[in-house]
Amino acid sequence: MKPVSIFIHAMLFASFIITTSGCGIVDLEYRLTTAEDISESKFANTTVESNENFLIEAAEISLEEILFAQLAQEKGLSPYIKKLGKKSESTHHKLFRELHQIATGKFVIIPDINNDEVLLECKKMRLKYGNDFDKQFCAHMVKCHKKAINLFESVVVSTTDPGIRNFALKALPSLHELLENSNSCHTICKKNKRCYPSESSVKH
């Protein structure tokens, strides 16, 4: 083979190597960029879904507490139970209105009626009378407000949405207060034949 021919072949081979290597680098960069974009997109979608779930769960809790608070005002034996029911209804009505406003701004549909499980539980509680009703209502209040506090505290830590975080932070003191009142009520109801904590223990 002539020297010129050898040189030409060598140049063509080198050009092929450089071209294919370059394509490999570009392809790798493209794949890395695409994977990063997909990862960021999944994170964003997960965050949005988490915020939506919070709004829906918080709305469900408030709807449930409004229902049981109204029942307490109707059937409670102790004036304290009626007062606690009134306070809980007022607190959760306010929370629900704020939740609805936030959800509307984010195009999230939250429930506006209680589900069948909650309605069935309320129907069962309606069959209770006197101190038995008061005790069961207090136990329900303790359980639900522990659940609410866990939900709200979790979203404060996890969300990147300032509106949702501020809403949850603002709501927590009222939820803690209702839990404290409910715990006090539940303890006294279990010890006595009637639930008569001091009236001052339910703060307005």
Kindly list the characteristics that best describe this protein:
Ferritin; 0% strand; elongated
Structural class: mainly alpha
The helical percent reads over 70%
Return the domain count.
1
Instruction: Work out the number of β strands.
Output: 0
Low-pLDDT runs: 6-23, 37-44
Basic shape = elongated
Mean pLDDT: 82
Strand content: under 5%
Q: Helix tally?
A: 5
Can you tell me the CATH architecture? Answer: Up-down Bundle
In CATH, what is the class? Mainly Alpha
* Rg, Cα atoms, Å: 30 Å
- Major sheet characteristics: none
CATH superfamily: Ferritin, core subunit, four-helix bundle
SSE succession:
HHHHH
CATH topology assignment: Ferritin
Cα end-to-end separation: 102 Å
Structure description:
This protein has 204 residues and is mostly helical. It has a single domain (48-201), classed as Up-down Bundle (Ferritin). It is 83% helix and 0% strand. Helix 1 (3-75) runs antiparallel to helix 2 (79-105) and helix 1 packs antiparallel against helix 4. The longest helix has 73 residues, at 3-75. The model is unreliable at 6-23 and 37-44 (pLDDT under 50).
